[in-house]
Amino acid sequence: MEIKKIDDDFTVCKVKDYTLVNIEDEYCFIGKTDEENSLVCRTEQVPANVTEREDGWKAFRIQGVLDFSLIGILSKISTLLAENNIGIFVVSTYNTDYVLVKKEKFPMALQLLADAGYQVV
Question: Which of 1, 41, 90, 100 lies 20 to 30 angstroms, CA to CA, from 79?
Answer without folding.
Answer: 41
